Amino acid sequence: MVPVLEIDWFLRDADWLHVATIPVFTGVVGYLINWTGLIMLFNPIRFHGVRIPGMRELASLLPRKVQEVPGLAQGGLGWQGIIPARAAKMGSIAVDKAISKLGTPAEFYQQLEPDRIAEHIVETFRPDVPGLVDQVMRSERPRLWRDLPRPIKEAVYARVQDQLPRIIGKVTDQIGVHIDQLLDPKLMVIDHFEKNPKLVVSIFRDFGQRELNLMVRFGFVFGFLLGVPVAVVDHWFGQWWLLPVLGVVVGWVTNALGMWLIFEPPERERILGVPVQGLFPRRQDQAAEVYAQIIADDVITLQNIGDFLLNGPSGDRTRRLLADALRPAIDRAAGPLRGAVRVVVGTREYDTIREAVTREAVGRTITPFQDPEFSKEQGEKVRTLIAQRTKELPATDFVEMMRAAIREDEWMLYAHGAIMGLAGGFLHLAMFGVGGA
């Protein structure tokens, strides 16, 4: 008789304490695997460890997968949460999968209402006009400016201030015309996520904490159910190495099932007649609201756009564009005084003064972008756009966007589960001995 069929023998001779404790052990180990797996995913936000001389060179000789362990490629031994360590990659894929489909730079800029921005710049800039003119004239032609009668100075101030709406309107129009060349949302998002990895963690935590907690609890269920056949096999064959080896399998599969529970399947499907869908894609609408709020509050903000325009890779081009828009406008603002000033100071000196005013004005036209209250007010429109478009994403693209920070490093979670399963098998072996009759 084949041992597998000897049910009476199994029931009669089984060490029930030994057999019954195996599923309990695998259940507890499954729970701990998923609980500690979440810690590995999210913590710490920054790399914690030590730098070891020669580690960077050694890491370059190791298999590529091993090089991906946080810290090794940088010459350190320690750990950084998988998601914050891959924040930049998630940002890149988030743009490719979602933000690039959510809208072009021009659409984002239009959502921020350029006319409203121009009005705000004028309101902010107008009180600075006298100081700007004084600063430039004292620097370029101090004696001439000192000797000018006060009424003439006041006339210059007033004319420049009167011309401001037209000048600034031209500036914001020019930004809008060239925004696709000046603003790179992908680079902006990647750079911001890399500098602020906590934001990526927030995307998961703020909407998905309930699902993540459920995954941990299911770790016990998966581990317990997988432990039942392990107990049977261990009793039948009674080999000392069985529990540690099968513990590796249970640990690996438990983590894989936990990831599957969170993300798969993206679309609602029927499995054995039961409707099934991943926990995250099931709540895509709620996730879209959280995701949009974080992007609008912390990433694609008026403040960050202004900073990127002036200080980003295309900053020089932005300054040239603004200067080209401001230069003729400053001539118009000088009005009837322009000819007299050219005569008094000379054409070259006049051009120098105009260029100096232009340089000063370029920075000040973007400075109002840094107003936090105004940025938040305009950002609500960006939030609405991103939330709407994220809800419209195909579920597969949404899952890919959310899973991007994890996918390449999932093997670490599975390996972590396997190691814990191996340890659980040895612990049970130490406590209850070898199974079998």
UniProtKB/TrEMBL annotation:
Report keywords, A-Z: Membrane, Transmembrane, Transmembrane helix
Recorded superkingdom:
Bacteria
Where does the sequence pass through the membrane?
20-42, 214-233, 239-263, 411-434
Which PANTHER family does the UniProt entry name for this protein?
UPF0754 MEMBRANE PROTEIN YHEB (PTHR35791:SF1)
Protein name according to UniProt: DUF445 family protein
